[in-house]
Protein: Elongation factor P
Amino acid sequence: MANTSDISRGMIIKLDGSLYTVVEFGENKTARAAAKVWAKLKGVDNSRSIEKTWNSGDTIYPVRVERKTYQFLYKDDTGYNFMDSETFEQIALAENLVDAPQFLKDGQEVSVLINTETEQPMSVELPDKIVVKVTYSEPGLRGDTATRTLKPATVETGATVNVPLFVNEGELIRINTKTGEYVERVKE
Structure:
């Protein structure tokens, strides 16, 4: 057990029978009343986002989480299949546990968060930025870099990303997996 002074960003806590990760937190102090601690929480085992306020010093229930490196193998009707990079043990997870499934490539390394109490996988996180190849895009115009106009492009994972006009088919681009946005072009 811990109290509200132990809250940190990224911590996973148990609240009303569900698990939440702390996205943001802070403290409100007033002259007369006791200090309050607030946190924005995102559901790990559900898709809810909530805000919670505690009195300073209240008990919270953190969950110990282990982060393991797994490799994405393939997707089938059982779900997304991953292999532990050390033990070569394979697991299949449902799509709702995967952070950004549209950007998964065969053989890609991901982090799987595992609840140490139950040994159950809780979520799969892709790296913040990944490099993918553009498989289809309308032809770009040379020298058209002055404006911030975007066009849709299909990448090797099948996802569609908006890219600048100068990006062509066959080029490698870096994208942000959290927002799904184009970051930069990558030279081979």
Summary: The mean pLDDT is 86.
